[in-house]
Amino acid sequence: MTSRPLTTSNAGGAMVALAGVTALAGLWRWGQLLQYMRIGEALADHAIPFERKTMPHAPAVLVVGDSTGVGTGATTPGDSIAGLLGAAFPHVSVVNRAANGARTLDVIMQLAGTGPGRYDLVLVHAGGNDVLRRTHLRSLGPQVDALMRLARKLSSNVIVTTIPNLGLLPLFFPPLSWMMSRRARQLCALYAESARQHGAHYLDFFHERGACPLTSDPQRYFARDGLHPSNDCYKYVFDAIMKSTPLAARLTRPRLRPVRTA
Description:
Layout: H1 8-46, E1 60-65, H2 67-70, H3 81-88, E2 93-96, H4 104-112, E3 121-125, H5 128-132, H6 137-154, E4 158-161, H7 176-198, E5 201-203, H8 218-221, H9 231-244, H10 247-250
Parallel strand pairs: 1-2, 1-3, 3-4, 4-5
Helix pairs in contact: 4-6, 6-7
């Protein structure tokens, strides 16, 4: 039995078929991405930031940032980082100015709009939307420095978290995933250096492929949209904050004067 020789016509047909399959796969992935975005928008619509007012001289925490500060993706506000902090320190006041979709520039405005007074702790959760919405690096550097300066004016204790390696999430695919990894790496480096210069505590959750505990188990650590944190992810970040920063020591001492929370 002899095989038919590969002709130019046969090769051309195979290439066309391959191109068609590739195009269909690409359309399916983009359709899946749009579906996840719609799920994420629904999660954001239902997210309520955790806040609590206690006694006037109780320690006070200010939370600013994006959807991570709001707690989008958590089952309840109590499952967010702010909510977990509130449960761990029931005597502490929590003022939450975080907003879904906030970029670094928006977080600066959150800090600037808090009014007079100082806090025992400022929690900053930012950076994800600067990657997703492509904030230019040339403008991002000065913005991050301005954010750190404002946060330090409000408290001598500032804790900053940014993002994991977004390019490793199954939500993104090449070449989009490569761009996400590169931009996330650059953003985390900017925040880490600025935090060091301004005396803030920076927690680094960015890891390269094969070394990230969060993106290695996305079904556990991310919500239904494949992007926002899940309850387990918020717990992971809060535990890291408790372990790596002097948070507990800062929230167990009474204040000398109350902080304005409105």
